[in-house]
Specification:
The structure holds 2 protein chains of 2 kinds.
Chain A: H1 4-22, E1 47-51, H2 67-71, E2 77-87, E3 93-103, H3 112-116, E4 122-124, E5 140-141, H4 143-146, E6 147-149, H5 150-156, H6 158-192, H7 205-208
Parallel strand pairs in A: 1-6
Antiparallel strand pairs in A: 1-4, 2-3, 3-5
Helix pairs in contact in A: 5-6
Chain B: H1 2-12, H2 14-24, H3 31-65, H4 81-91, H5 102-119, H6 137-158, H7 162-193, H8 198-204, E1 208-209, E2 212-213, H9 220-236, H10 248-251, H11 261-286, H12 302-323, H13 329-356, H14 362-383
Antiparallel strand pairs in B: 1-2
Helix pairs in contact in B: 2-3, 3-11, 3-12, 4-11, 5-6, 5-11, 6-7, 7-9, 7-13, 9-11, 9-13, 11-12, 13-14
The chains are: A alpha+beta, B mainly alpha.
């Protein structure tokens, strides 16, 4: 009959109205600045640079390979390579970023930089209250601002960070085993044939040396 | 007992007594003018105050219906939101389009508010509380109410904007269509009362049978008239679900697209005052005006009853707005001409029959049956599926 649907609809909204005073499920609003809900684990917004240990620059995993800079769709990453080298987590000498800037006003949070990074050096952060009164300088983050500890990474993405740590530990032990084997082989060779020159292949570093 | 009853009588008449006392401070020849000005001040202060309260209640009520909180930042529970809104609209830039007709563009909101305020002159808000007890009060109200269409069309035309003009066209088409059932549905109350005076219409409903009042809404023709009146009133005030003239998703804001700052606020005010006044007339015509709903509650002041009923009506309007989606233009017109008009015409006949069917119970059965039958049949016709078929094009195919 005419009007039946209207009455049904009125009943529904009346239920919502009355229910909002008594039931939590009917009032889903979170009073944001005062009340907060913890972000879910897969939350992501802008990238940050992971460092190990206490020193931001010494422990920075980034080796300034510039893959992320090249892959970044909106081109918001700017990297300047260092002229000297520092040891990475394995102990190998690596180039590091003399400058690493991300313009988060340009960044579109696509996570491509994270996916392409071979060094687990760049990850997604969950910090979202980034408003600033300076829309140029204030939104251009340098490496100091971008560097965040591995502990922070563990805090925001525990599962992912544990996987990354396991992978890095495996890599490290592999590299150590390889170095040990190479050292042993070199020692054995030296013992068996004193005049033979040491194999340069034992060192992996030159292969990854960025082309000048 | 007598002292307490005189206290309640005084409370009932407190505003009237206050008006007389203040007017008494002036010389004899000035007193009528002063009394009138005081009443006007009362109206001009009270109803915009209710408007301010309505805006925040509406936003909060709609929020609750949509499972959110609504405004809650300005003042306790967000109750000072209208103050913030008022300051905002006062300080905003007043933009008049370059090609607009500046004079008409300026006059439109002013005319709307003035016309709407004039309607309150004949609205009895309590016992002895009416600015002007006009013999043709209802006629005056409808005549004034019709002139809001003029201001809306002025706004739409002078803005020189396609959306404004479309909105104004829609508004005029809608308001003229619904003016007919609005008038016809209120005529039943005039027929039974035998007077166009709003005061007399309220007085005619002020009796009680047992504890129940003689409101017109409790009769078959009164109930039908009330429902028709409320539907037409919604359309007349451009309220949801009849808010096509300002359908945001289609034509930006309709006729007030080109209004900003305080002129926009005036339109907003005019619209809500129109809603309040038409709700006040629905109360006057069918809900016993300032009369108490039960005989033992008559001790409560009459104006308190009027405003309580007004807030109930406002709540109902908000409730409808939170429930119903906007109609399509053809649905709107079909509803007006194929349902509202026949029903309100039939209701006139039923009211006439009620008058001449005597005092027995038979008139209740006959009148209810006729109206119910017409409702069901007309509803069937209105809800009949239209087989429109596939759209065909002359040139594009």
């Amino acid at each position: 009959m005419l009007g039946e649907g209207i009455l049904k609809g009125l009943g529904e909204t009346a239920k919502n109205f009355a229910g909002s005073f008594v039931s939590k499920e009917r009032m889903t609003t979170v009073q944001y600045p005062e009340e907060r809900i913890a972000p879910i684990e897969n939350t992501r917004d802008f990238p940050f640079l992971v460092y190990d240990g206490d020193d931001k620059l010494a422990g920075m995993r980034c080796v300034a390979c510039q893959i992320c800079e090249k892959e970044c769709p909106p081109k918001c990453i700017y990297i300047v390579k260092s002229t000297d080298k520092k040891p990475d987590f394995v102990g190998k000498m690596q180039i590091y970023p003399a400058r690493f800037d991300i313009d988060i006003s340009v960044c579109m949070s696509c996570q491509i930089c994270v996916e392409v990074c071979p060094f687990e050096a760049i990850k997604m952060d969950t910090e979202f209250e980034l408003s600033t009164t300076d829309r140029f300088g204030g939104l251009l983050y340098d490496r100091e601002q971008l560097a965040k500890s591995n502990e922070h990474y563990h805090k925001i993405h525990p599962t992912e960070a544990t996987e990354v740590d396991a992978r890095l530990a495996e890599e490290k032990s592999k590299a150590e085993a390889k170095a040990k084997a190479a050292a042993e082989a070199a020692a054995a060779k030296a013992a068996s044939a004193p005049p033979a020159p040491a194999a340069p292949a034992a060192k992996v570093a030159p292969a990854k040396e960025p082309g000048a | 007992v007598s002292s307490s009853s005189s206290f309640w009588t005084n409370l009932d008449q407190v505003f009237v007594l206050l008006q007389h006392w203040i007017a008494g401070l002036f010389p004899q020849w000035l007193q009528p003018a002063v009394a009138t000005i005081l009443a006007v001040i009362g109206i001009v202060a009270a109803f915009p105050g209710i408007f301010a309260l309505t805006t925040v209640l509406e936003r909060k009520g709609l929020g609750r219906m949509q499972k959110r909180l609504g405004p809650n930042r300005v003042g306790p529970l967000g109750i000072l939101q209208p103050v913030a809104d008022g300051i905002k609209s006062l300080t905003k830039e007043d933009i008049v389009p370059l090609s607009a007709d500046a004079v008409v563009h300026f006059l439109a909101p002013v005319l709307l508010v003035v016309a709407v305020f004039l309607g309150y002159a004949v609205l009895p808000v309590g016992r002895n509380m009416v600015l002007m007890n006009m013999d043709a009060g209802l006629l005056f109200f409808f005549a004034i109410g019709a002139s809001t269409e003029l201001s809306i069309f002025m706004a739409g035309w002078s803005s020189r904007n396609k959306y404004s003009l479309l909105g104004a066209m829609r508004a005029v088409a809608q308001m003229i269509s619904y003016e007919v059932p609005l008038l016809l549905s209120s005529v039943v109350a005039v027929m039974i009362t035998g007077s166009l005076s709003t005061v007399k219409i309220v007085e005619a409903q002020s009796g009680f049978t047992g504890i129940f009042p003689h409101w017109y809404v409790f009769t078959p023709w009164g109930f039908a008239g009330f429902v028709l009146f409320v539907i037409a009133a919604l359309a007349e005030t451009n309220r949801s679900p009849f808010d096509l003239p300002e359908g945001e998703s289609e034509i930006v804001a309709g006729y007030f697209t080109e209004y900003s700052g305080f002129k926009f606020a005036l339109f907003f005010l005019g619209e809500y005052l129109g809603m309040l006044s038409i709700a006040g007339f629905a109360i006057t015509l069918f809900l016993g005006g300032w009369g108490a709903p039960f005989s033992f509650l008559e001790i409560v002041p009459s104006w308190a009853w009027f405003f309580a009923k007004l807030f109930a009506a406002i709540f109902f309007f908000i409730w409808l707005r939170g429930t119903l989606p906007r109609l399509r233009q053809d649905q709107l017109m079909n509803f007006a001409w194929k349902f509202m008009l026949p029903m309100s015409l039939l209701n006139l006949l039923v009211a006439g029959a009620w008058r001449f069917l005597g005092d027995g119970w038979s008139k209740w059965i006959i009148c209810s049956a006729v109206l119910l039958l017409a409702y069901v049949l007309l509803g069937r016709v209105l809800m009949r599926k239209q087989h429109l078929g596939a759209r065909s094009y002359r040139y594009a195919d």
